[in-house]
Amino acid sequence: MGIAVGGGIGVTPLLAMVRALARTNGSFELHYCARGPTPAFVDELATVCGHRLSIHSGPAGTGRLDVQAAFATPQPGVHVYC
After folding, report:
1. What does pTM read for this prediction?
2. What would the pLDDT profile of 39-55 be if each residue is shown by its tens digit?
3. CA distance 54 to 9
4. Are 12 and 30 in contact (CB under 8 A)?
5. Nearest 5°: phi and psi at 5?
6. Please, which residues bridge with residue 29 across strands?
7. Radius of gyration of the chain (CA)
8. C-beta neighbour count of 48 within 10 angstroms
9. Are residues 28 and 52 in contact, defined by beta-carbon separation less than 8 angstroms?
10. How confident is the model over 23-28, as a mean pLDDT?
11. How far apart are CA 37 and CA 62, in angstroms?
12. CB atoms closer than 10 angstroms to residue 82
C-alpha cells in the first residue's frame, strides 16, 4: 500500500509512480493539494487513479487535506511518498 501526497505542480514526479502502480494494480491513494480551482494534470490523474484520487483545493485554504486524520493511525507496510 502506498499513500502519495503532492501539491500544485509538485505532483509531477508522482505521475510516473501512480501510472506504474495503476498498471500493476498496486494498492495506493493520491492526495493532490492545490490552491486553484483547476489543478494541473487533474484530468490525467483522474483517469489513471480513478477512485484512489482525492483532490484538496479551493480558495483561501478551503478543502485542505486533513493531514492529521490522513496519517493518524500508521499501518505497518504502508509507504508514504511526497
Report:
1. 0.88
2. 889 899 999 999 999 99
3. 16
4. no
5. -130, 125
6. 3
7. 12
8. 18
9. yes
10. 94
11. 11
12. 11
At 53, list the grid cell.
484520487
Q: How many other CB atoms sit within 10 Å of the CB of residue 72?
A: 8
β-strand partners of 32: 6, 55
Neighbouring CB atoms inside 10 A of 14's CB total 22
20 pLDDT band, cuts 50/70/90, is very high
* Spatial CA neighbour of 64 closest among 55, 72, 73: 55
Instruction: With H, G, I as helix, E, B as strand and everything else as coil, classify residue 50.
Output: helix
Residue 37 amino acid letter: P
DSSP annotation of 39 reads -
Within the chain, residue ranges assigned H as helices are 12-23, 42-49, 67-70
